[in-house]
Give the backbone structure.
Amino acid sequence: MMGPLPEGNGNRFVMRLPGKMWDENDKTTANARGVPGMCLSRTVYYVLTVSVCLVLFSGERFGQAENDRTLSDAKYDFNVEQKTFRQVLDLLAEKHKIPVGLYVSSSEPNSCRQPIDLSISQEYVGEIMDWLMESCPAYSWTIVDSTINIVPINETAPLLDIVIPEFDAKDKTPEEIVDLIFELEEVELEMRSLGVGRDTTTILSQGKLNGLPRHSIVLKNARVRDILNYIIKNTEAKSWILYKLESEDSLISLRVY
């Protein structure tokens, strides 16, 4: 609730509060009472500053919510034949430009690798995802800042949840941004505590995304997954995937494509 408004008193402004009176022209009296002289212009400036900050903060949150709602409200025609769970996710990203991030379960059931058929006409993305989760029940999905993130139900993802106080990447390709993530001290310390290292042979064998435009990213207090979501939302790469190598579970691979 707003406080009492200033009252006019000749050429002076007097701020009346219960049991007290602050007089802008009587700074000596005010200071003697332990209350600094209060200037109306400063009060107005403070109120306006707080209001602007609230509007900007609300606008940012509303913008993200609006983007998420746009993705969840869109309808799609989607038809696939004899595609695995991961292949369907790739088609969602490639054909329908829906950014998808996947953290692969270390105990993925065989059903996730069985080819499936899917024929959907004008259905929400949530319906598609729910159907996919039935064919591969090891995962759950959610919409995060206009991207779909899929994670194992019974596993944590400490690497994805590392908070980076400030992430600054200038003039980088999507893969170079990922390389920069692994150079962060916070990520190096977490990987050391987990006893894992980064696999680079998979990246080298599949080749780089050469010739792509370069991008600059500045994010504050963002999780690693937020950085990855930003990449697939704002660059040519539309998917990210994180998994442990089957042949060597002490190595992880993180790619964008």
Summary: The radius of gyration is 27 Å. The CA atoms of residues 196 and 250 lie 5 Å apart.
